[in-house]
Design brief:
alpha/beta; 2 domains; 8 helices; 8 strands; 15% strand
Length: 221
């Protein structure tokens, strides 16, 4: 059967009314292209997978919220934090929300984990004060590595009979790096951004703020 997608200026909570009316998907305006693509991808995937089960099981309406919840389970976070208590608290908060987390105990370990397998991570939460290598230096090293990798990829692409270089390659990735610091001073944010970080949150870390950051830097919907 054909999927029906409702586009509305009303709130997400009104999706239930659309579901009762027979719609398969619901999107609130304004409609962003990425948001639309994600919901359509989900709808088309469900239609393709219906097969013999069609009509037997009542499907839930697809919304940008439900798509986002599904995406959470594939989001991989590298948590750079040397304090065991902070590690445990942040890890618990993120995993309970559905995210995958890998911990690095210092800046050097963070750089090693990311550069060894950049495609394994979607975002880095970076503590500033860590042993061996602090967060600022680690961020600078990661950005240098990314830039060098991009240059190597361009050279390789030019040599391969003029074939275009894929912008989806792991090596062209600019991973979002979010600074975490106990010093909520004005100059700290500027220093973090100059080191190559993308955003900044002050400790103690608030749950709501962490999820706002993930919404901003990871999700397209």
């Amino acid at each position: 059967s054909i999927s029906l997608l409702a586009l509305s200026s009303s709130m997400e909570r009104d999706a239930g009314k659309c579901e009762e009316a027979g719609f398969d998907g619901f999107l609130t305006k304004p409609i962003r292209r990425e948001k639309l693509y994600k919901v359509l991808e989900k709808l088309i995937g469900e239609c393709a997978g219906e097969g013999e089960k069609a009509g037997r099981v009542k499907k839930q309406i697809v919304t940008q919220y439900s798509v986002k919840e599904d995406m959470k389970h594939s989001v991989r976070i590298l948590l750079a934090e040397d304090n065991p208590v902070n590690q445990k608290l942040a890890n618990l908060m993120l995993t309970k929300a559905g995210y995958q987390v890998e911990v690095a105990n210092n800046g050097r370990e963070t750089v090693e984990k990311y550069t060894k397998s950049p495609g394994d991570f979607d975002l880095i939460f970076m503590d500033i004060q860590m042993p061996e290598m602090d967060g600022l230096e680690a961020a600078e090293e990661i950005r240098k590595w990314e830039e060098k990798s991009r240059e190597q990829l361009v050279v390789s692409g030019e040599k391969d009979s003029g074939a275009p270089v894929s912008h989806n390659s792991q090596l062209t990735t600019h991973i979002p790096i979010i600074a975490m610091t106990a010093n909520a001073m004005k100059g700290d944010r500027k220093e973090c951004l100059e080191a190559g970080m993308d955003d900044y949150i002050a400790k103690p870390i608030k749950r709501e703020l962490v999820f706002e950051i993930l919404e901003k830097w990871v999700f397209e919907v």
